Amino acid sequence: MSRKDRMAALDAAVGDVAGRRRESGSARSFIPIVAQMEEVFEGSAAELERLKAAGQVLLDLDPGTLVATRFRDRHGAAFADTAFEQLVQDILARGQLVPILVRRTSAGFEIIAGHRRVEACRRLGRPVLARELAADDRGLVLAMVRENEVRADISAFERARQIAAVLEAGVMDRAGLMAALGFTKGHLSNLLKLAELPDAVVAGLGDPRPLRIADGARLARLLADPAVRERVLAKAAELAAGSLPFARRLAELVTVAEGRAEPTPAPRGERVVRSRTGQVLARLTEQDGRPLLRLAAGLPPDAVDAIFAAIPDALRRSGLDVAD
Fold first, then answer.
1. CA-to-CA distance for 161 and 71, rounded, in angstroms?
2. In the chain, how many domains are there?
3. Are 159 and 257 within one domain?
4. Helix (H, G, I), strand (E, B) or coil at 112
5. Cα separation of 165 and 169, whole Å?
6. What one-character-per-residue DSSP string does 53-76 give?
7. Whole-number Å distance between alpha carbons of 247 and 304
8. Is residue 66 part of a domain?
9. Which of 188, 220, 260, 295 has its CA 20 to 30 A from that of 178?
10. Containing H/E element for 150?
């Protein structure tokens, strides 16, 4: 019976019972009304659950109670960059315009898509708007894949780690992934090789999201040699403690992996100090963002003294306060 028919039946029952109540005054005449009302409300509750399962009802959920999916594609750096801060400020100013996707599990709601929106709402202390999706693991993965297809900010590294997790869990096989994603066998192979990079190497890169598929796969293949792996892990630990830009970190790791000498940055803006006869007295250059003065070998002591005597005046002319 449809809800419309149940409501019509309820109206008829109310009229019928009201007439009999006037005739007999019996309180028992209310029992059919209660039964009809229960039937209507039970039907409405079932309808509401059906709409929720179809994703047609939006939910306000406590972000602190949501569980991240094991197939999450976001790297930790995605929750600490400028783009994330802009997302937080946008939700603060305009509200959450796009709901996240969740599915119901025995442990509560699991996030399918929208991990950064959840973290932004958690930081702001506000509920997160969610759409419930009834899906098994395969359906969950396909939903994430469909969302990723329209996102420009998902990196190759994040996609590679997600695909590797899907295969490891046995949710889909390689053929199914290639069909769902439109990947060639070679492209999928390179992504999976990229996903094999050890966490220590990823930490050495700092934020791995700029890493290209070809570069990451190449580095991962070099690590198959135990001796190379040991060298690269040692260099990665050194880089993780520093603050070099991503390109320099990657260059140093590849250089060590290939067994070449450590790369040295080319001098930039080199200035040469010469004598009147053309002899090179000193070279002023830059290394790692710092000025570097190199004196020519074999200078007589008087010449070295004259250079250092001239430095204070040169610094003063640059606007620096230099003591005598």
1. 8
2. 3
3. yes
4. strand
5. 6
6. HTT-SEEEE-GGG-EE-TT----G
7. 38
8. no
9. 220
10. none
Condensed to tens digits (0 to 9), the pLDDT of residues 275-292 reads 766 677 788 777 666 677
Q: Is residue 214 part of a domain?
A: yes
Q: Is the separation of the CB atoms in 215 and 250 below 8 Å?
A: yes
62 is written with which tokens? 């406590």
Domain range enclosing 308: 271-317
Strands (E), the chain: 58-61, 67-68, 100-105, 108-113, 128-132, 271-274, 280-287, 290-295
Confirm whether 202 is domain-assigned: yes
Indicate the pTM of the whole model. 0.50
pLDDT in tens, 163-193: 888 888 787 888 988 887 788 888 889 999 9
Answer whether 79's CB lies under 8 Å from 158's CB. Answer: no
- CA distances for 103 relative to 77, 78, 135, 202, 269, angstroms: 25, 23, 7, 31, 58
Length of the chain equals: 324
